Amino acid sequence: MLNEFKNFFEVNKISKNARFLIGVSGGLDSMVILDLAIKCGLNTAVAHVNYQLRKEESDNDAERVRKFCEKQKIPFHLNESGLKDCKNIQIAAREIRYDFFHKLLNDHQYDYIITAHHKNDDHETFLLNALRGSGIKGLKGIPPNREKIIRPALQFTKVEMQEYALKNSIPFGNDSSNSSSKYDRNFIRNKVLPIVTKRFKNAEHGLSTSIDNLKRDCNLLNELVNKAIHPLITKKGGDLIIKPSVEISKDCWFYYLNQFGFNYNQISSWIDQNSQSGRYISSDKYKLIKNRETWILSPIDFNKDDFSFIKLYEDENISQPLTLNCKSLTLKGPIIKDKNIGLFNKKLLRFPLVLKKWENGDKIQPLGMKGIKKVSDILIDKKISIEEKKNIYVVLSQGEIVWIVGHVVSEKYKVILSKDPVYKMILTT
Hints:
Layout: H1 2-11, E1 19-23, H2 28-39, E2 43-50, H3 56-72, E3 76-80, H4 89-107, E4 112-114, H5 119-131, H6 136-139, E5 145-146, E6 149-150, H7 158-167, H8 184-199, H9 203-229, E7 233-236, E8 239-242, H10 250-257, H11 264-272, E9 280-282, E10 286-291, E11 294-299, E12 309-312, E13 323-329, E14 341-345, E15 353-357, E16 363-364, E17 373-374, H12 375-381, H13 386-389, E18 393-397, E19 400-404, E20 408-409, E21 422-428
Parallel strand pairs: 1-2, 1-4, 2-3, 4-6
Antiparallel strand pairs: 5-6, 7-8, 8-11, 9-10, 10-11, 12-15, 13-21, 14-21, 15-18, 16-17, 18-19, 19-20
């Protein structure tokens, strides 16, 4: 395993003299990776997040990692972040973890972040994304090297790491929450994969081979798409100026623009409609603007200090810039009409949602209408004053407006059948 670990850096052309920050939870996977990094002679530091969710068990993990680092004379960075009142623990924990890693990366000039994802994590991701209807990008699994994050353990199975820990007497803790199948990934890990591997003896090898094949296919697809589209693109400052061509298929445009957060429905409508200059569609981070004979792909500069743009995670309440209480449910009884309550067909939503201030050019298909209408026209019809307009927010799912908060719900996302899963958002004034 040590030789294979060393080989990862050679294959990916990563200097072993670089400075590495390793995310270490104190569990088996990350403690094995830390041990391999030390034996490989890497210049390492450790980052540990204590979410304080498992009380004494969490504190023991932090102390175990601290003592190990102290013994090995390795820099140890600790972040103690409570998540007791958070409804989306896994998502929130991931955000806290990676925000912490990136802050350390910048503050201490580390070159790379190492995480302990292994082959079995890759298999879980593949199955989860397949069940969610992902395309080839989601099915090709976890990238071993992306930007500043590297994952040298993706070549190892869980069993191999367990055997390594046993042979090398590596201390590690067991996270009791992993035994719960409450979360989708844990369900796949604890309930689905054991049944699959019992029936199909070579299941792990087969899944790894399929993922490798998809990675090769995805690389080839990237090459072909870029070869077709790059000649149509010029850079201007931070923007990309695109000269559209009818010779490029809709699917090709989608595949290229999907990397900027646009979904298929957006791109399909964009291509099919001969829109006037000035029209645009937006994703979480980009706008695609029609400008005469060209398209302009422009990053959105959000000012987080004035809460003009925030992500809304599933079943999570917020108090800034608006007080929104959100939850999933099944409707019992008739729908109560209240402008401060947004009810949506949850199957159609994609989380995280986005809350942002409305802008000129924003459009929605209002509830009960067949056509699209500008948000600005809706606000005029409702006689919203200029001052009030400054504080009007919209909720988006994958760049498409689903609710003008406190005013209009989208027809596309309405609840039709009582058996449909419902997502309820309540604006508290």
